[in-house]
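lol ok so funny story. i was supposed to be doing the assay writeup but got distracted and ended up predicting the structure for this chain instead. priorities right. anyway since i did it might as well share w the group, maybe its usefull for someone
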Amino acid sequence: MDYAATTPVDPRVLKAMRPYFLKNYGNTMSLHTWGREAKEVLEESREMVTSLMNGNANRLIFTGSATESDNFALKGIAFANRKKGKHLIVSSIEHHAVLEAAHWLERQGFEITYLPVDKYGLVDLNKLEDAIRKDTILVSIIFGNNEIGVIQDIEGIGKLCREKGVYFHSDATQAFGKVPIDIKRMNIDLLTVNAHKMYGPKGVGGLYVRDGVEIEPLIHGGGHEFGLRSSTVNVAGIVGFAKAVEIQKKEMKSDAKKQIAFRDKMIKEISKIEDSRLNGHPTKRLPNNINFSFAYIEGEALIMKLDIKGIAASTGSACSSDSLEPSHVLLAIGLKHEEAHGSLRLTLGKYNKKEEVDYVLKVLPEVVDKLRKISPFKGGWK
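and the output, tada:
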């Protein structure tokens, strides 16, 4: 129940990758046969990955992770467009990869507006429009939130940014391969994608950069990836990414239908637990995401108790789950510290079965009840 943290590699993906470790292991920059073969499969993979977003293959830059892609988008745009302005806008519920990059840019003299969200985690287009200035160069809004699963009005945001002449970046790490994405219709200038959230390998990400967008490289060297991301290309990982995309193009709709059914069943049943609260929008959310807060208990204790029962879950994003600070996403949607501390994120995947869902729904109320009996917290939620 923690597929948002990472996913197992699909056996079909592993099979596709294997030859590029053992036999077809050429460097894409080499001129000999092995290098040319590696270069050819690299470009074929680029075409496959961009086909799932309706993009142009020669505009996708393969990276080492979604975190790298987010940093590339913010820092690359900021430094390439300093003459136009030094103002960027990010939402208050972005992944830490975006927020920390924004904080770093502030220390370099850029100005960042952290856009608030409503109680569901949704960005208000009117507030976004008010925040855009003449010197604004980039707006970065996450497509589907990694913690509460809320899906933004990406098409509306893209339309507004295009009208205002401002670049629009969206982190689609959790959404890519789960919901339809059309970067042209949605007016997305830069899109972050990732392999290991969609049954591909870890260590492979991508940043789509629309033609005409001015961006500065972060990594300099031998001129790989159109001169925008120098580093020997991870051919095997990229082949795995492309195979994962090929599979999801065929199976995304059926996977989503199954996960939505499980998700809605779990939301309905978990809502019956006294003093529980659904976090995020009830319907505008990723097919696999369930996030609740429970009064009077600590999320860490809940996670450990569930783990003992054989259930993997999370109290927030996996990247920051070792932190004792309450989730910035939950605070942004208006939860108090004690409410945010009692949160539980359950995220489904294509390998989950009905029996597993039923098991969680049986165990969770029991664990919550036991923790509340020994809880030192007093009072309730108004």
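The CA atoms of residues 166 and 225 lie 25 Å apart. The beta strands are 60-63, 87-91, 111-115, 136-140, 167-171, 190-194, 205-209, 276-278, 289-294, 343-347.
back to the writeup now i swear
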